[in-house]
User: What shape does this take?
Amino acid sequence: MVDLSVEIAGIRMKNPVMVASGTFGFGLEYAQLFDLSRLGAIVTKALTVEPWPGNPPPRIWETPAGLLNAIGLQNPGVEVFADEILPELKKFDIPVIANIAGFTKEEFAELASRLTGTGVSGLEVNISCPNVKAGGMVFGTVPELAAEVVEAVVSSTSLPVIVKLTPNVTDIVAVAKAVVEAGAHALSLINTLLGMAIDIHRKKPVLANVTGGLSGPAIRPVAVRAVWQVSQAVDVPVVGMGGICTGSDALEFILAGATAVAVGSANFYDPLSSVKVVEEIENYCIEHGVESLHELVGAAWKN
Amino acid sequence: MSGFYSEVSSQIVEQVSVAPDCYLLTLKAPQVAAAANPGQFVMLRCSTGYDPFLRRPLSIHQVLREQGKIRFLYRVKGKGTAWLSERKPGERVSLLGPLGRGFVYSEKKKKGLLVGAGIGVAPLLFLAEELASLEWQLVTLIGARTASQVLRGDAFSRCGAVKVITEDGSAGERGLLLQLLERELRENDFDVIFGCGPLPVLKGIQEFSRRFGIPAQIALEERMACGVGACLGCVCQARDRTYLRVCREGPVFAADEVILDG
Assistant: This one.
């Protein structure tokens, strides 16, 4: 029997596979398709203090082996989540990690404090959304600002704090180090790459928001590189994501230094891909005589 | 209401070209056939690799319940539908469905007006056949640019009266679908209008519904990523300016429920 269990910042998961924020709603949309408890954890759609309408459509555009999105954080707000959605999600035997998105440092603190004691297993701090005018990626591109947000969150909650990083920076390691120093218990990377597409018939940008975040298999090598760099530079666990569709993809991230992984856009390609990734990792371990997944974490640079 | 959906690998029974770039695809999918309601759709994977990456939403055109088959009528618009059009009987495709909220209608027989523009007739045939079996009295208006784009007229005529109008007059009357719609509403009484087509037609239906005081339901088309309500990529605007998911609250909406821009 292979031991696939991992622990991220005190969050115990039966396997290393999560679903990435924004690609899985609040999980309930997929609950009828498979048993959610087969996953390691669910990361929710981003939550804001107030209900947030999001960006006008068009919001998505397909690109080679991926897609651009500019949803703009549409969500019912933290109160509705805590009062109505979370009780439903807690019926499943699986850690729920709430992705939080403040437009100011104070809002991040408020979200962290509001969610403490509700039964969520941890927070993912979204300082990397490319699709909002305030907050989001603005915080995540400047190490000092990122650190301030993380300090505000950590001092407002007893929950494990995972900080989600943007790849749209010159030096992702500098941001990683700054947020770890500010108290982050784990990091997740990468969020989407900033991109855009133009409709050559209308001669206008395709997305109403003009720019969007690129995800899917197209960005996987960028994500693997970021995990490789960051995991060697910090001593907190890294959750790797970016274009993971199969167990092999996930193993690349684990070997690059990720303790856990998240399946994102692949949920659109195949809504069962996350559970297939779990099975494929397990099979790989059996074939390669791996008894515990920990043997593989960072093996590409450790040995 | 959103019912139970599943992910199935479904075998192609038949694929025929019914017009330039338009195909009628028949799949063996008993689960979907049993569960589907008119106006619902499936997400069909249109590649073997990651390009195209996203599944394509296709509305269910016809259900052959006893045979466990479903049909799709689609037009080749890009890489995904081109791939689909090259698939042969015996091959399998992955589909997710049935999805979304379809047309709402009473089991009591009434008078219904169906309005389909071009490929917009796709979701209406399933509806016409269901309503006909409930002994509704139906009139179907089909509009297209030219005769070859008038699709499935025969199938609709088995469910009730059919009136055709083309922009070049090569089939039926010459003129625009909305002109025919206006005249039909002026001359005859209907309890409800069901429509599908490009934005100008949907806007016209919305306007006539209001002007004649006849409720209308319209099926919207939108690019989708997940198809199940998770990603929030396919929204349209509600009257109160909030966003509704076309895949979940739709794809069929009451005409006065949504704001159509474009």
